[in-house]
Structures are given as structure tokens and as C-alpha cells.
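Thread: "does anyone have the structure for this chain?"

Original post by V.I.:
We have the sequence but no experimental structure in hand. Need at least a predicted one for the grant figures.
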Amino acid sequence: MEKFLGMANPELLYEGEPLPMAGEKTHEVIQVSRATRWSIVANTPKYALEFYRRMKRAEQYSRHHLPENA
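Reply from O.Q.:
Generated one for you, C-alpha cells below.
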């Protein structure tokens, strides 16, 4: 998901320590960003290309690393 949102050129709103409730343990650093719907729609060709590349890599991996009858 991080790579998907990164392709939409999100605007970073906050990066730093989270504000957890008392006694809660969480991440040390978080990033909060936003992307407009239009930037996501405009980058649809990038997402389609990335999806196709991932499908090809998965196919190649399964062909070379998994047993025939798995």
C-alpha cells in the first residue's frame, strides 16, 4: 500500500512521534500524508503497469522456486 500511495505524490502532513493513549505502546515515528482522488485517478496507468510487473514476477518466482505439483 505504501508504494501504491507513493505513486500518487502524497503531501506529507505530519512526521514524528504518535500521541498514544496512556500506557499504550506503538511505533516510534509515524507519517501522515494525503493524496487527492484526482492524483490517484491520474496515476492509474502507473498502477496498472506495476500490477502487471508484479504478476510477471510472481509467475517467474513460482516457475523457478515452487515444486511442479504444489
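V.I.: this helps a lot. Residues 2-65 form one domain.
O.Q.: and The helical segments are 2-6, 37-42, 44-65.
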